[in-house]
Amino acid sequence: MSDHAAHHPINYVRIWFILVALLIVSVAGPMLGHPVVTLITAFGIACVKAVMVARNFMHINLEQRYVSYVIITVLVFVFLFFAGVAPDVMKAEGSGWVKPAWQAAASAANASEGGAAHH
Amino acid sequence: MSSAARPIATTRSAAGMPTGKLAVWWVVASEIVIFGGLLASYIMHRLAHDAWSVQAAHTNTWIGAFNTMVLLTSSLSAVLAHQAAERGDGPKAARLLNATIIGALTFLVVKAFEWTEEISHGFTITSSTFWSFYYTAAGLHASHVIAGAILMAWVAKDAKRNLELHRVELIGIYWHFVDIVWIFLFPLLYIAK
What we know:
- The structure holds two protein chains of two kinds.
- Chain A is mainly alpha-helical.
- Chain A has five helices and no strands.
- In chain A, α2 packs antiparallel against α3 (35-57).
- At the A-B interface, α2, α3, α4 and α5 of A face α2, α3, α4 and α7 of B.
């Protein structure tokens, strides 16, 4: 990375200040109590922070291009895993997966988890 | 160590970069699958069970935010160590790596107090599925923090004598990845309530 960094020096302390400012926003956002704002400030900002760390601290954009391709490929595999498994986990009813036993177990677990919160 | 005596993994460059660095990127790629699979499982279960928000309400956002701040700062010292190593200043790189290790230890001490508090309130790994995911994800991450701190101490020892300075960048790449994992764990476990 040294050749590129020599031409485009990165102010690491400035990057750190921006990351801390984004952290403050991500903590303050949910205090507004709006689900969409929480989604954007918590998870949207997490994605921004992750990209900032990868680019400015890990210098992934200065590495051989195939490094980015490898990272993107494994992220796609994780997404495929989510897309393939999530319907079975998240759907309790429907034409393809009527699961009365699952529903009963989930209801019992939810009731149990709700009760445990009072301890 | 003379160039002739250096292990081939740090000198061969068949892929356009030192093999050691290529290996670290492959480690990062495989870790993405490990943490990605765990977090994807957490997200799909979390979305399917509204009752988990009741459990998530017991995690302490301020402690999570403090530890995020600690890891972001430790990432800064790690990249400054890399910068010092690039300039050939091994002793400075070693000092900055030691500062990063202090960040790692701070993170672990805070985590230990946090877990002690939660366990004392009855929230254990067997309390519910939420807490099972919570301890598994945070515990797996903490084990990576411990591994990173040990490796950094080893790299810093050599860097102090201006030896194997290229390793400062390699351990930095790993450490920044550990930071990124926490950047996603923080909103998932502490903010989404």
